[in-house]
Amino acid sequence: MSGITRINAVTGYGRIASGKKINRAADNAAGMAIANRLRANANATNVATRNTREGINVTKIADGGYDSIMERLQGIRELAVKAMNGTNSDDDRRIIQDEIDQQMAGISEAAKNTVYNETKLLDGSLATMEIASNPTGRGSEIKLTNASLDAIGIAGFNVTSGNFDLDAIDRAIEKVSSDRSKLGASANGLAARERSNQVAYENMTAAQSRIEDLDMAKASTDLKRDETIQKVQLAMFKRQREQEAMITKIM
Predict the structure, then answer these.
(1) H-type helices in the chain, by residue range?
(2) CB-based contact 93:179 (threshold 8 Å)
(3) Which residues face 140 on adjacent strands?
(4) pLDDT, the chain, mean
(5) What is the pTM of this model?
(6) Domain annotation covers residue 83
(7) Of 3, 96, 147, 154, which alpha carbon lies 20 to 30 A from 139's?
């Protein structure tokens, strides 16, 4: 019986059992090396995709903080315009100021308590958050700003005297709008990176599969062929031994 045929059959059983056409370096050393590199890169890309999604979550939370601040700034502006009306008494303006103070307290609260995983996002303690959004460990940045009352320029804003700077509120609104737009650009960049990573991961895993995965239909056909050859060889070997025994007996 041919040793090659026997080895082919054993190898075929192993491949069908594992579903892989490369189970050891001897099967295809170059193919195994390429597949291992593809697997490593695919795994790193998958991690980078998860990192990118976390970065997107950061931008969503920060944007929610900006939204709260913007809503309160709009409220302060409305109250300030109301306070400018000459029909208001001093008591009226003090009541309006109480409402403004509540809105400003809400801005301070949002700036202080907009947090992701214990990291404050809008209080000025962090200017840039690095996101490892590609397989090399580098990638993207999220620009974060200080949205405190001092930073946006309305700390101590007061309408009780009737002499106040409404433009200060407009400048604060403009600053928060600009900062929010930059955050949106970061979010869009991360979303694009996520899509790019997903495509790269799919391509790498598909390439790895083409190298490693077994064509089960072809492998089954090849195995049946090798089994048939084995049976024929065994039968021929047995017949040869029987003939040799008969010749020996006659002699």
Answers:
(1) 3-18, 29-83, 90-113, 149-152, 166-212, 216-250
(2) no
(3) 131
(4) 83
(5) 0.72
(6) yes
(7) 147
pLDDT digits (tens, 9 = 90+) for 20-44: 655 655 566 776 688 788 889 899 9
> 74 lies in which domain range?
29-212
Tokens of 167: 């433009």
Tell whether 121 is covered by a domain: yes
The rounded distance, in Å, linking the Cα atoms of 250 and 23 is 51
Domain assignment of residue 108, yes or no: yes
Q: pLDDT digit string (tens) for 203-237?
A: 998 887 777 665 444 545 554 555 555 555 565 65
Instruction: Name 230's Cβ contacts closer than 8 Å, sequence gap at least 6.
Output: 1, 5, 6, 9
Q: Provide the domain count of the chain.
A: 1
DSSP string, 212-229: HB--HHHHHHHHHHHHHH
What DSSP line would sit under 40-60, residue for residue? HHHHHHHHHHHHHHHHHHHHH
User: In CATH, what number is assigned to the domain containing residue 95?
Assistant: 1.20.1330.10
76 SS3 class: helix
pLDDT per residue as tens digits for the range 145-160: 999 999 999 999 999 9
Tokens read off for 19? 């579903």
Whether residue 73 lies inside any domain: the answer is yes
